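2.7 Reproducibility. Because tokenized structures are sensitive to small changes in the input, we list the exact sequence used for Phosphonate transport system ATP-binding protein, including any N-terminal residues retained from the expression construct. No trimming or masking was applied before prediction.
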Amino acid sequence: MTLARLSGATLGYGAGAVLSDLSLTLDPGERLVLLGRSGVGKTTLLAHLHDQMTGAGQRVALVPQDHALVPQLSVLRNVLMGRLDDHGALYNLRSFIAPRARQRAEVTALLADLALEGLADRPVAALSGGQKQRVALARGLYRGGTVMLGDEPVSAVDETQGPLLMDLIAARFATAVVALHDVGLARRFGTRLLGLRDGRILFDAAPGAVEDAQMAALYAD
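Resulting structure tokens (single pass, no recycling of outputs):
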């Protein structure tokens, strides 16, 4: 079963095309990494995939580049937002006022996996950039689903944490599409690498089939 499909698609905002004649499929079990310079269209492609898959009724965990957190709320409540659409308004209101013991236990265990121990009740506004990014990742992991879509989900953490967090994503989601800027991490995590340049796909292949020269051409001036 194919989870997403594009055939000759043109994607962009308003009248401006960011990506043209784009064709690809996403199958279960694939970890697709989007590579390319800033502004090439990785975020646009992720947004389109999100709309397509959620429109088809698939459960998608999203980790946006801007985190999309509520700074005044605690870490715990921001993570709980990952499942807001699972329940009605009254259930969600009660959870936000007084989170259930089961919810707190689930989120606390997840925060420990992300090196955020002891921060469940801290306002997001008081966190560092790297901590905020991990809270956004925690919300996506807490949501769960068929596939995770991540837009630079580990860009604000150090080179030691990055691989560990990507391993956590791989362990929780059989299928993922992520935009990364770290080529080494992309080769380590992905089963497919999709290189974007000048509005088109430069390569779409397994990591071992992408040569260093192809990768260099992706970022060359």
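The chain has a mean pLDDT of 94.
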